[in-house]
Amino acid sequence: MAIFPIITIPDPVLRKQAKPIERVDDELRRLMDDMLATMYDAPGIGLAAPQIGVSRRLIVMDPAKDDAPKTPVIMVNPEILERSAEMRLHEEGCLSIPDITAEIERPGKTRVSYIDREGKKQEVALEGIWSTIVQHEIDHLNGILFIDYLSRLKRDMIVKKFTKAKRAEAL
To answer: Which of 58, 70, 83, 134 has its CA 20 to 30 A from that of 40?
Structure first.
């Protein structure tokens, strides 16, 4: 399994709409395994393919902490079918925006359809942390970052900080 470098803002791939996946095959399953390995190595609890430079509709998630048993979920072409009116506040972070967190309010429950590792259509109801993660990762597939839920001033300050750091790296 390969560990991929994680792309950070302001890379334009993070703002692109990811393309749907046509079929689940061995090559895609290898990418799924590599994404899980990359997520666990980071360490993170969710990863979308655009975060490793692959503009395809694929996400992996696992909120298991430290020594807790791993419970990975892989979703191909995930789509939110329903969101609850009940909201949930969660301190979110992102592997593509290291060392930045913010309280983000999202629906507490979601119903999602997706294709699984075997190529079968699935539908699942998620709540709590799982609901937050799936919304965060599907946002990545649509070119949306969690900082987009912040005020324009806060978002601009964060982007400016990363842009400046990227420029300094290039020198």
So the answer is: 83
Residues 77 and 119: their CA atoms lie apart, in Å, by: 11
Instruction: Give me the half-sphere count of Cα atoms (radius 13 Å) on the Cβ side of residue 101.
Output: 8
- pLDDT at residue 66 is higher than 80: no
Sheet holding 109-115, edge to edge: 46-48, 58-61, 73-83, 109-115, 121-127
Using alpha carbons only, how large is the chain's radius of gyration in Å? 16
- Residue 22's pLDDT band (cuts 50, 70, 90): very high
The distance from CA 76 to its chain's CA centroid, rounded to whole angstroms, is 12
Distance of alpha carbon 63 from alpha carbon 114, whole angstroms? 19
Question: What pLDDT, on the 0 to 100 scale, is given for residue 68?
Answer: 86
Judge whether 127 counts as a catalytic residue: no
**Among residues 22, 103, 137, 169, which one is catalytic?**
137
